[in-house]
Amino acid sequence: xxxxxxxxxxxxxxxxxxxxxxxxxxxxxxxxxxxxxxxxxxxxxxxxxxxxxxxxxxxxxxxxxxxxxxxxxxxxxxxxxxxxxxxxxxxxxxxxxxxxxxxxxxxxxxxxxxxxxxxxxxxxxxxxxxxxxxxxxxxxxxxxxxxxxxxxxxxxxxxxxxxxxxxxxxxxxxxxxxxxxxxxxxxxxxxxxxxxxxxxxxxxxxxxxxxxxxxxxxxxxxxxxxxxxxxxxxxxxxxxxxxxxxxxxxxxxxxxxxxxxxxxxxxxxxxxxxxxxxxxxxxxxxxxxxxxxxxxxxxxxxxxxxxxxxxxxxxxxxxxxxxxxxxxxxxxxxxxxxxxxxxxxxxxxx
Amino acid sequence: xxxxxxxxxxxxxxxxxxxxxxxxxxxxxxxxxxxxxxxxxxxxxxxxxxxxxxxxxxxxxxxxxxxxxxxxxxxxxxxxxxxxxxxxxxxxxxxxxxxxxxxxxxxxxxxxxxxxxxxxxxxxxxxxxxxxxxxxxxxxxxxxxxxxxxxxxxxxxxxxxxxxxxxxxxxxxxxxxxxxxxxxxxxxxxxxxxxxxxxxxxxxxxxxxxxxxxxxx
Lengths: 350, 217
Known about the structure:
The structure holds two protein chains of two kinds. By secondary structure, chain A is mostly helical. Chain A contains 13 helices and two strands, in the order αααααααααααββαα. Chain A has helices spanning about 1-30, 40-50, 55-70, 75-80, 85-105, 110-140, 160-185, 190-220, 220-230, 235-250, 260-280, 290-295, 300-330, and strands at about 285, 290. In chain A, strands 1-2 form a two-stranded antiparallel ribbon. Chain A is globular. By secondary structure, chain B is an all-alpha fold. Chain B is built from nine helices and no strands. In chain B, helix 3 packs antiparallel against helix 4 (about 110-125) and helix 7 packs across helix 8 (about 175-185). Classes of the chains: A mainly alpha, B mainly alpha.
């Protein structure tokens, strides 16, 4: 049952990485969309695209936290007492981001909208960086079983920084890929080109980060590197292939693929990397000093958690699938997406 | 923690009751073809969306704080504490999903389907509540001896209620005295018409209920 719960935890992390990541990434593009006039249309597209799904996307985080603290309380306490700085920043970022997004939609004046927008966008970059560096800290075995590891070098180290940069670029990549299809569905050709450019840019950034990352891991986290290349290599291969295919399709619009078909490819590329991390770490929770079975909660708790996971599969998965299906088909939206009625930037400049 | 919890807990009743009131307005709009009620339900749904978003965010922060501020507690007792939270997590998930469908589904889904997507929001709002009362959940499972022993340390009013429930337990047949102590609290064992419910089991009335019955008869 311990392995099942650990699998559920990994699945939660992968789903949070893909859905939550795409969600965070929109904040990156929101931040770089330009001034109030130029960025109005892209920002409206972002609002329109993530409005219905962002809360559900972030529920995976709570799922992961609860599974971790219930199923593996020792590891949870160790991670929390060691990596409290990035986790604290991430929690702060989540507050800023959620409130910023919610209030931006309902606030009336431009100044308030701008303030809330800045809060939403900056925290969308900061939070994934922190989560990535936490992952790096855990993956490189810098969290002692008893907790209270070094509060700074446990996350500000080569693997941690690599994790953070990889997380930010991946989030941007996922978001851009998702936005291409949204813009196409709404028939906004200029925004489709806008998102396409960003998808290619972010894909290159993530690709370079991953390549450099192999050397960083070789120098800094040898066990992870060895396990990734010896046990997890099929997943790395899948990720590379899917990422390259998605890049090729995105960069050459003449292939005339439906943009929605690129989404699974991009998501697969990211999911395979996260799964690779899980496989490389197995059977240890922290470094090589706390394995799954010695860190697990008592059997009764694990059985209950298994039941809860089953309940989640039965209740949540169909509902979530319905929500995503409705969003994908454009059924869920504000009464009328505002950016379709606005003129594209530069249209009045002949 | 106290600040976050104090902030979050204000939003919690809105998740349960406000969405329910919104559903009543929606129901009225559909049954009586009432345009005003429809407008009211639509406006309330926007308010509910913002309240839910802020509640979701502060709830996420709370689960972070459980680890950041109380790592020792979670390290030792997380395995027990976590179960109600895990169940709560499922309801939270359902609430988030159906809130989104309900709020963004106005005029997009058929009126009937749209109405029914609001129902899980209310139900999961109710389903989430036990997690806020771990102490209460624990009490339901106490055997008689424990209830009696613990009652000694309670304030007089609660001591009486618990001891009475423990006394009643053998006639109820099982050891679930704690459950009975909770159930008799505040429940008037009378029908709205005023007649005391006749039961073959000896029912123990709370003081208030007994007086209430005497007044009516």
